[in-house]
Design goal:
The chain is built from 20 helices and 22 strands. By secondary structure, it is α/β, with parallel strands linked by helices.
Amino acid sequence: MSGIKSFNNRTDEIEKIFSSALPSFDDVQQALKATILSASGWRRVFAESKDQQDKTPNIGAVNAVLAALMAKAFSEFIKTKTGKASPVVALATDTRPTGASIADAMLRVLIKNGINVQYLGISAAPEIMAYSHHVDGFVYISASHNPVGHNGVKFGTNNGGVIAAADAAVLAESFKALCTQKDCIETAKELCTFKDASSLDKAYTDSAQFKAKALDAYKAFTAEVVSDKKDKKSQDGFFQFLKESSGTTPVTVVADMNGSARTLSIDRNFLTELGIAYHAINGKPGEIVHEIIPEPENLVFCAEEMTKLHAKLQDSSAEPVYLGYMPDCDGDRGNIVFWNKDIKKVEVLKAQEVFALSVLAELSFCIYQNGENQKLAVAVNDPTSMRIEEIAQAFGAKVFRAEVGEANVVNLAREKRAEGYTVRILGEGSNGGNITHPAAVRDPVNTLFALLKLLLIKDTPEKAGLFHEWCRRSGQEAKYRDNFSLSDIIATLPEYTTTGVSEKRAVAAVTQSDHAKLKAAYQKVFEAEWNTKKADLKQKWAFESYEPLCNNGTTETRNITDYSVSKKGGLKILLKNAKNENLAFLWMRGSGTEPVFRIMCDVKGKNEAEEKELLQWHTAMLLKANELSLQ
């Protein structure tokens, strides 16, 4: 992978900041209050202007102090965790404009604190996390899908994912303690100021070689993840099989990179080596031309490019399978568009559909590879659509749910593996994309290959292909045909109508910061509403009972009698019919990475009117609860 150069974008802003006027102690305390410290990562608006849409590279003095103290907290944490005086830590950024200055501040502090830093420059999140297996820990500067003026940090050890919730809490407390010390600004200045900058210069000079190592490690790791095979000979055999299949079923992948960190990652090389045609737009690092979140409203650019490519086809009989994706800025998430041959146009898949297809693919692949004698399971977050249970049931797999947050889902999967389950596929269906074991982070390349395996692994005399196996197990044999397309596969998914996470109506105007108090008030409102409306609910939607449950970290508690026990976790109301079957759910949780309160509804069947009405009811009850809780 050495053909891809490093892009560390060195800056001198930190040097200038700490040689001029510094912020006040009160400025730092106010900035600390506005910083979100969650297990999934720490985030704030790092643009000096405080404008979340500002593309300035300048972070200003207050943010420089915070970045320095974040690095100090982690350096102390990783030394304690590893028991090493000079642990090896990989440091990288996504392509946000403020990334270079944050990295420079953190690099200085890590070096000063005796950390052996390998600076990768710009790196995709799955890339640095794959490389983390070769070092002691990592610091990744990114705000994922948040607007361009935001930035943040994810921390990890050497297990391929972010640190667990318990460690994250310890690290956050350490950081807050540093920020509240009266000499914190002087501490940050001393750590960021070098009399002899040779060690800092060397870190930048060595960046290209470490970037190359990270790319090689990521490519090798992705080959293991996609093939589910550890030895290279078996991997090569599997990919040769896929390559031959892509020769008879040609595939073109279209990527809207939107200037993300994946512009400098393995995507093009990895796909083209398998004979898959690759076409990218907005491929310059930092060329962020539209909103970052890879939801339908931003996938239209990829869809438009795919439409243009299809229009240039000379021979419609040689029409390839077109798949498209757009990653977010750190490149760990990428939702999908595809060319629907039946209706002759591009379709944008919803996040829940992408995840459902990935689960279908990987469960079928587990059985294709390893046979029936497996204790299969899937780990998901609590707002993932209930369609996953239906898919899992067809393969004899169990579904376990965690609180929102990638770290929660990853740790739940680890717990279930320790109990003897095979958990190959996991993730947050509400956000799209998937985590494929042994990866511990979402990755659009793995999502693409889940779909490619569905499309390319077809029937042989010895066994059924992945899609055919799904059709058999789900009682839909009549829907299978030999020359199937992705639209045929989508048509066999269990039908559910689910609120999209990026929709405006998926955010409630909640002002109560004590979420336990809010949920206690919601319980009173909901129970009163249920008693008043249950006859209508039964007649209209066949709801005859409900079950409240909550998800905190990796623990799900069913049939709760006190809604406040969910605290800041997820609260869900399952709505059931006379047979005790789940027909819908109402869900709520305050975001851990953004200052918003999220809500959603999931309804069995294709029924947008019902989903809309239920969400309106849910919203009205929540707003009433908000008022009551503030009295």
